[in-house]
Amino acid sequence: MKIIQAERGRLRIGVVAVALAAAALAVLASQTASARSVTPTAAVTKTGSAGGPRPSIVLAHGAWADSSSWDPVVTRLQRDGYTVYVPPNPLLGLSYDPAFLRDFLSTLSGPIILVGHSYGGAVITNAATGDPNVKGLVYVDAFAPAQGQTIGQLVTAHPGSCVLPQANVTVQPYPGAPAGAVAVYVKQSVFPTCMANGLPASEASVLAATQRPLASIALTQKSGVPA
Fold this sequence. Notes:
alpha/beta; 2 domains; five-stranded parallel beta sheet; 7 helices; 8 strands; 30% helix
């Protein structure tokens, strides 16, 4: 399984890392075919290899976002001929979200490149464990926790997180929440500079208004065996 870490501030840059992972898979497929046969294989293009199936791309969004945050990336990948899926990330914690994604992955056949942004990185780290169809993991400004680590530990490893000060978030109960868990929102006044920096002000304001909450237990639940 190939792992690519892309440290960029804007989600749109993620298409580069996704394409790199897909190209790497195509090269591996071509090399494997060459090793098993003396028959020459066709040249590998950026959209896949004639010697193996083109991977499906599955994108996992981060906290305080939804699937539409990947829209520009989806457009470019589809234009290059990839099948792309962006299932919703429930944002309910690492005991639930990876299982939700794992069930979705079980409905797909063939090779998969799995991509996570921000909190979505922790989700793919757990969801892909033991799945032979997942050939590569791509982390776009994403958490890649080791076994036993929590998102809270990673967030506090370095100072400066804009979501840690209590004054920057609001909380409220939600139906069916485990004991002590609450839904956490980033205040709209803080969201543009905290979660949407680099975007036009009008777009950042819309994202602030449409944000989905993160369950507080997502910060404290331990990550499992990493893929």
